[in-house]
Design a protein that fits this description.
The protein is mostly helical. The chain has helices at residues 2-32, 36-68, 76-104, 110-143. The relative contact order is 0.14.
């Protein structure tokens, strides 16, 4: 039971952070700062810090989830945590450098890179949301 609470709190922090940054903080940076590039710099820094938090929270969840993943091939919660980590890393370190390069040069494909970065962020949030959603049922199955 203690492990279930710990996993739920870690996942809630991760999902809450994603929601706070993506739905409140980043749009506010663009709305408040006069220069669009300043807003982009502030939002980019917040997304980077959220990625670091996702790495820490996701790794802790992987450790806790691995203890309960029996057998490993049937562990949906473990794979959802892995998916969230994958999309966090792929988005921040794979897509965002291209987005920054395209935006700083006002390239035509900046919008495409922004869409891909947004998709990676949404997929990360989707994995974490699905994890939180199925966690009670998954924990009940292991307890039986």
């Amino acid at each position: 039971m203690r492990s279930l609470r710990a996993r739920w709190v870690l996942a809630a922090l991760w999902l809450g952070g994603l929601a706070a940054v993506g739905l409140i903080a980043a749009p506010t940076a663009f709305a408040v700062l006069p220069d669009k590039m300043q807003g982009a710099a502030v939002a980019s820094r917040m997304f980077y810090l959220m990625t670091l938090a996702a790495l820490a929270l996701g790794c802790l969840l992987m450790i806790l989830e691995r203890r309960h993943a029996q057998p490993l091939a049937a562990s949906t919660p473990l794979f959802l945590v892995f998916g969230g980590l994958f999309f966090a890393v792929a988005g921040e370190f794979g897509v965002v450098p291209h987005l920054i390069a395209a935006a700083s040069t006002h390239a035509a494909d900046a919008g495409v890179w922004h869409a891909v970065a947004s998709l990676a962020y949404l997929l990360q949030a989707g994995c974490v949301f699905a994890y939180v959603w199925i966690l009670p049922d998954a924990a009940a199955r292991v307890a039986r």
